[in-house]
Design brief:
By secondary structure, the protein is mainly alpha-helical. It has one domain. It is 80% helix and 4% strand. It has helices spanning 14-70, 73-88, 93-102, 105-113, 119-136, 142-154, 158-185, 190-203; strands at residues 4-7, 10-13. Strands 1-2 form a two-stranded antiparallel sheet. Helix 2 (73-88) runs parallel beside helix 7 (158-185). The longest helix is centred in the N-terminal third of the chain and has 57 residues, at 14-70. It starts with a strand and ends with a helix.
């Protein structure tokens, strides 16, 4: 049945009022999902990306442990070189020679091939690597970096210890690189300039 109401001498269809109300409600719902749907989509993507990175790191750790057991030197050396290159990317030119000397790839290769890379070598490498990261990174990361170093030193099985070293260094470098990218994007800010100057001063011999 056709229904109507009289308001201010105008005849307004109740069906029209309901239709407009439904349209308004639908528009509100659509606006909500457009606004917050994108937000949750971004959050979901970041969570998935974080999980994917975690799985990749875990896969690398297991691959390194297997390579140590099988004495797959070429794979271990490739991982070592990748770590050195990632560090070198952020080291000032004045400090690159010192980095290369402390991470001598040829010396590391000879240690592996002659089975001379032992616990002392691993602990020395661990301390040296995290010292470089500590000097390059933002101070806010110092405690988490030290915790990562301690996790490596706490492992008592040699292949697992090397795998842990690679995993913890990779995660710590990932955070440092993320921070560095943000620094670059805001490099003209006075606070950022000051922090960069402090970081560079720590690298001076």
């Amino acid at each position: 049945m056709y229904r109507a109401t009289i308001t201010n001498r105008r005849v307004v269809s109740m069906d029209s009022v309901c239709l407009d109300t439904r349209r308004g409600f639908c528009i509100c719902i659509a606006m909500f999902f457009i606004k917050y749907g994108v937000f949750f989509l971004v959050i979901g993507y970041r969570y998935k990306l974080k999980m994917d990175i975690g799985h990749i790191q875990q896969d690398i750790q297991q691959a390194v442990q297997q390579a140590v057991r099988e004495e797959n030197h070429s794979y271990i050396i490739s991982i070592y070189v990748r770590i050195v290159n990632r560090l070198s990317k952020w080291v000032p030119e004045t400090s690159k020679k010192r980095l290369e000397e402390q991470f001598d790839v040829e010396f590391f290769t000879q240690l592996l091939k002659h089975r001379q890379f032992d616990w002392k070598s691993l602990h020395g490498l661990t301390n040296t690597t995290f010292k470089w990261i500590h000097d390059l990174q933002m101070p806010i990361r110092d405690s988490s970096t030290e915790a990562a170093r301690q996790r490596v030193l706490a492992v008592s099985i040699f292949p697992e210890a090397i795998g842990m070293y690679v995993n913890e260094v990779d995660k710590t470098l990932h955070l440092m690189e993320k921070d560095m990218q943000e620094f670059i994007q805001n490099k003209d800010h006075p606070v950022v300039k000051n922090m960069l100057e402090q970081a560079i001063s720590k690298l001076k011999p």
